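Dear colleagues,

As part of the handover before I leave the project, I'm documenting each prediction I ran so the next person doesn't have to rerun anything. This entry is a single chain, and its sequence is reproduced below.
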Amino acid sequence: MYNFDKVIDRTGTNCTQWDYVQDRFGQSDLLPFTISDTDFALPHTIMEHLNRRMKHPIFGYTRWNHTDFKSTVMNWYKSRFNTEIDEDWIYYTPTVIYAVSQLIHMKSNLNDGVIIQTPAYDAFYNVIKENHRTVVENQLFYEDSYYTIDFKQLEMQLAKPENKILLLCSPHNPTGRVWTEDELTTIIKLCQEHHVYIISDEIHMDIVRKGNNHIPILDKSTNDIAIVTSGSKTFNFPGLLFAYTLIPNKEDGDAFLNHLKKQDGLSSPSIMGMEATIAAYEKASDWVDALNEYLDDNIHAVQSFLKEHIPEIKVVYPESTYLIWLDVSDLNMTMDELQYRLINIGKVAIMDGQTYGGNGQHFLRYNVGCPKSKVLEGLERLKLSIET
C-alpha cells in the first residue's frame, strides 16, 4: 500500500542531510546517513490536505488555539497510547528545542544544573549551555549491547539542590531505549522526592519496534512534568516548523504562553506545519504502522549484514527511532581513523558517536529512515572502508 522503497532525489532542495553534508564532513560527494530526518515522502493523505490548503491564495496570521488542532492531539494520544490528554494542556511551539529552552528558563536559574542521560541528543548540550545552565551527565550503564539507567547516580544528582531539571529523552536518542513503566515510575518518584522538574522530549514516540510500547510520562503523573513533542519526526516534516508541548499545570502553561506570545512574538504558527499535524493525526495512523514494519525490516537487514560481513561491529538494537547505534569498539582503530576511512574510501557520511557524549566515542549512529537500497549501499561502503 505504501512504497517506502521509492528513491526520491532530495538534492537541490537545500536539504541539510544531502545538500550540506560537506559542512560537517568536509566533502560533498558522500552518501549521507546523518541528520535525524528520513528520505520518505509524506503520506499522500497529508500531501492531499496540504495541496487543498495551497489552493487558497492567502496565508495570513494563523491561530493554533482551537479544537481542530487540539482534538487531533487528544485523539492521537488516546488511540496510539491509551493516554487521556486534557485540551488545556496543549500549547503550540515552533520546535521541540524552543519549548525545552523556554521551560529551562521557567524552571531554573542561571548556573543551575540540568541532568541529561548520556550519550544524548547533541542539541541538549547546546540548549543547556547557551541558557547558562550546567550540563549534569547521568551516564547510562552499557552492558551486552544494552543501556540502562544508573539510578544510584541519578538519585545523588537529583538530591543536589542546584540541579533543578531532568531533561529526559523518551524514547531515547541515540540508544533507542524505550523506557519501561518501572523505569518511568522510578524516575518520577525520585524527581518528586527532590523537587526536580521533568521535561520529557518524546518526539520519537511513534517509532517503536514490535514488542515495545511507548508510555507518555504524563500517563504516570502530571505533577511538575511537561512533554515536548511533534509529529514532524514521525511523518518527516520538520521543515514545516510545528511542534507542541503538554503542560498540565495552568500557571506553568500561562507562563509558557506569555514567553511565546509576548517575549518572542511567536503566537502565529506556520500554517502548513499545523495543517500537516492535523492531517497526520487524523488520517495517517495506518501509514505509521506500515512505516514501523518497514523500519523493522531495515534494522534486520543491518543486523544480518554486519553479522555476516563485519561481526566486529555490534548492533545496539533500537527499541525505538530509525537510528541504529553501532558499537565499533572491536574494530581496533580510533574514531578519527574510522571517520577518515568512511569519508575518503567509502564516501559515506555516518555520524560520529562522540557528538553525543557519554561513551559515544566507541559508536556510530546510522540512520535507516530511508529505502532499503540506500541502507544496503551504505553498509557496503562501510565494509569497503574497513577492509581497504
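The mean pLDDT is 97. The chain has 14 helices and 14 strands.

All the best with the project,
I.
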